[in-house]
Amino acid sequence: MFIFVILGLLVCTEAQGISAGTVFVLKGEDVLLNVTNADVLQDVFSFTWKFNGKKNVLTFQPGNNPNVFPDYTGRIEFTVNNFSVKLKNLQEADSGVYTARVTKPSGEETEAAKYKIKVQDQASLPLLTVSSVSDNSSSCSFTVTCSSQDSHINSTFTFETRICSQEGGERSEGIPDTFLQVYQSSGSIICNHSNHVSWTNDTIIINDICAKPVDPEEFPVYLVKTCVFSVGLVIMVSAVITVHLMEKLNKNK
Ligand SMILES: *[C@@H]1O[C@H](CO)[C@@H](O)[C@H](O)[C@H]1NC(C)=O
Ligand SMILES: *[C@@H]1O[C@H](CO)[C@@H](O)[C@H](O)[C@H]1NC(C)=O
Ligand SMILES: *[C@@H]1O[C@H](CO)[C@@H](O)[C@H](O)[C@H]1NC(C)=O
Ligand SMILES: *[C@@H]1O[C@H](CO)[C@@H](O)[C@H](O)[C@H]1NC(C)=O
Ligand SMILES: *[C@@H]1O[C@H](CO)[C@@H](O)[C@H](O)[C@H]1NC(C)=O
Ligand SMILES: CC(=O)N[C@H]1CO[C@H](CO)[C@@H](O)[C@@H]1O
After folding, report:
1. Which is more confident, 173 or 128?
2. Ligand 2, atom 7: closest residue by C-alpha
3. pLDDT band at residue 20, thresholds of 50, 70 and 90?
4. Domain check: are 165 and 112 in the same one?
5. Which residues have any ligand 2 atom within 6 Å of their CB?
């Protein structure tokens, strides 16, 4: 009987967690959990950060030192002014729901913040292989397999005198929030393995497969919309990365 009640409670806390927006964090990185609702921080008797609704992370009573629980000593920073907590060097086991609760002097309790954290490892290197190449004077067609440890996709590309077309190409993996995509961009076939915090790719140059050169510069614009979109994406991402790098360099000076 008791066990059922406990199970029921667990299910409830799980269900609540799903409604909180998920924050994805790369394994080994830090995350700052803010209490943005300043109103609830007026007139605090005691304050707690909890993990998955039951495990204490930290308790605090204004005027005293914060009390950090054993699993978190040395990897947590608490800011007394705004009650935010920084969790450092996150590991997969830290994935879960973090809630902040305020108790008023009257005994009234309020939820001050809630975060669903999901820690993801760097996406592993995928592998791109080519099979069944058919190449003649008017068209070049081939099938690629883009694979990661847990999943794979097959996709067939056909190039007919400068027209590029593709069948298949995208898949969510067995592992949630991890993706495998294959597409052509700038004369290459790209197999992209990504999750919310990282991506990596394996690439094959089309001209290494097809004897007749495929020059993306010469594709008629209206025929390669889908291809150009990927090129645009890569350029945009590169531009963002370049700006970031330049900012970082400037700061270091
Ligand atoms: C907390 O606030 C800081 C800026 O004050 C922001 O960089 C950070 O992403 C916020 N944390 C979360 C989990 O939203
Ligand atoms: C809380 O304080 C910390 C440390 O000063 C700061 O990094 C963070 O952005 C603050 N959070 C909010 C929501 O103001
Ligand atoms: C070239 O190959 C394509 C597909 O493999 C085929 O449909 C086409 O008939 C072939 N053309 C010639 C000239 O052999
Ligand atoms: C992809 O192709 C391989 C052989 O090339 C085959 O074994 C596999 O079942 C195919 N997978 C899908 C999802 O069609
Ligand atoms: C791979 O996929 C990610 C996420 O969709 C994207 O941000 C990244 O630009 C892609 N990389 C390449 C080389 O296309
Ligand atoms: C890890 C990896 O293979 N990264 C490559 C992904 O693709 C870009 C070009 O789009 C290469 O520059 C990277 O080396």
Report:
1. 128
2. 32
3. low
4. no
5. 34, 36, 79, 82, 84
Judge if the beta carbon of residue 34 lies within 6 A of ligand 1.
yes
Q: Is 178 found in the same domain as 108? A: no
Q: Which of 83, 86, 84, 68 is nearest to 31 (CA)?
A: 86
Cα of 191 vs centre of ligand 6, distance in Å, is 10
Burial of 142 (0-12, 13-18, 19+ CB in 10 A): buried
User: Which residues surround ligand 5 with Cβ inside 6 Å?
Assistant: 190, 192, 194, 199, 201, 233-234, 237
Position in ligand 6 atom list of the atom nearest CA 234: 10
pLDDT of residue 187: 86
Nearest to residue 113, comparing CAs of 36, 178, 227? 36
Binning pLDDT at 50, 70 and 90, where does residue 165 land? confident
Cα 36 to middle of ligand 2, angstroms: 9
Domain region containing 196: 127-208
Sorting pLDDT into bands at 50, 70 and 90, what band is 182? very high
Does 114 or 215 have the greater pLDDT score?
114
Task: Give me the CATH number covering residue 63.
Answer: 2.60.40.10
Quote the CA–CA distance of 244 and 118 in Å, as a whole number.
25
How many domains are there within the chain?
2
